[in-house]
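Let's study my pick:
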Amino acid sequence: MSRITTVTDETATPEQKALFDAIQNQLGTVPNFLRVFANSPEALQAFLGLYHIANSGSLDLATRERIALTLAQQNECEYCLSAHTTIGRQAGLNTEEIESNRAGNSQDAKAFVALKFSRALVEHMGQVTTAEINEMRDVGYNDGEIVEVITHVGMNILTNLIGKTSRVEIDFPKVELQTAA
């Protein structure tokens, strides 16, 4: 049971209901973590705005999902791991790639560097080295794309925090976190 209210269609204010209708029209559903966000319509609007802008960038969907999978596992957010496993499959990631992404790896050499950079951003709270930035450039990421990776890391930290803090009910096929051996 969620520790923060999950706003339902029945309990939603007119403002929350309007946001849910917009989400429903775009995604076909209103995921539970967005229903938690809806406790503050302003916070939900801010997240949706950032989400829209970030997803309009040049990073492809598969790379964005790889980042989300890597960070959900690294940050131990079972809700986000479950959600992004489903979304990752829709983005064309196979089971082997999803498992690899969860471990911070990828079968795609360029994506691997983005995942490594994403993990370093979280681990060191942004204090990455010049060598790590140059490695991103060396595999073909430009400065705009590096900023987009940083933005996606920030968004994923935010959603990981919502998922873990609220302990929101998982409304995707549940995926268990991997435990350290």
